[in-house]
Amino acid sequence: MRTCAREERIKASTTCKFQTMARLFHTVLLAALIGAAAAEAGQKLVLTNDDGWAAAFVRAHESALNAAGYDVVLSCPAVDKSGTGSSTATPTVLTNPCEFNTCPVGSPPEGFNASNPRQNYVNAFPVDSARFGIQTLAPKFFNGSAPDLVVAGPNVGSNAGSTVLISGTVGAATEAVLEGFPAIAFSGGSGSQVSYTTLESDPTSTTSRAALLYADLSIPLVNQLLSTPKPFLPGGILLNVNFPSLTSNCTAASAFKYVLARINPASSGTPPDVSTCGTTRLPTENSIISRSTECLVSVSVMQASNKGDATAGNQTFVLEKLSPILSCSS
């Protein structure tokens, strides 16, 4: 009897181990299939920002999106246009060089990298860069098709709470939505405004590490959203995503959790948010990313018309789309 009992315990232990391994394999396989589906579909993305076309953050993001199998065209301001919100102007000939001397004085209002025509600048504001990417570059590089998604950033520095009102990164994303395209604005708390060449010349710098980490963190969210049926987002709605500052225990993308949040603090008269994680009040973006040692990424649902929080109905739509990758904040 003792022998039989021991055999049963061994059998049960072995079965448990196989079940655990099977669950782990299923999770990994599901993530791989989502990424593979995106790659196979070759979904089309316009990538823009407000830090400029030669900034390390946006070039790292471009590389990560390309590596994930997306068809990407970059359309960004010729120079740093941070903090310009939804300003717009007619692009003009450059009277100063592009940022980091990537194009000379006298360059045309719109231009591109001779070695990679998919990397484009616009000598105007982020809104104008997004518009040029959607209206001119997308038909050219996507065989007459429109983009499936417009991605802005990551921005150097957080764009949370009231900061969204002056953010050029958010301004570019809202422009896309107002033109009828789904969009995501990404921002990160660490790093500085440096050339993309820093990614190779100084790969261990804070900015290089942040650029690569934030780019990696964007992929699961983009993959999940674009693996769902259209419409990817409700009309008039975009996502505002903030990555926390780098900390010693948050150095790998696998350490992070994505948390549904709201942009502005709620008042006594604010309608309830979507019901999730046992409450009808979402945490604010700032309250999430301030907990930097916990490796939390805030994901907010924004109205393009006023850059404020979306309704509970639109939050519910996004929750259902992103539920496989979302977590509770505590």
Automatic annotation (TrEMBL):
Survival protein SurE-like phosphatase/nucleotidase domain location: 46-249
A Pfam entry, by short name: SurE
Similarity-based family: Belongs to the SurE nucleotidase family.
A molecular function GO annotation: nucleotidase activity
UniProtKB keywords: Hydrolase, Metal-binding
Regions crossing the membrane: none
Protein name: SurE domain-containing protein
Domain of life per record: Eukaryota
Keyword set includes Cell inner membrane: no
InterPro entries in the record: SurE, SurE-like_Pase/nucleotidase, SurE-like_sf
Annotated Gene3D superfamilies: Survival protein SurE-like phosphatase/nucleotidase (3.40.1210.10)
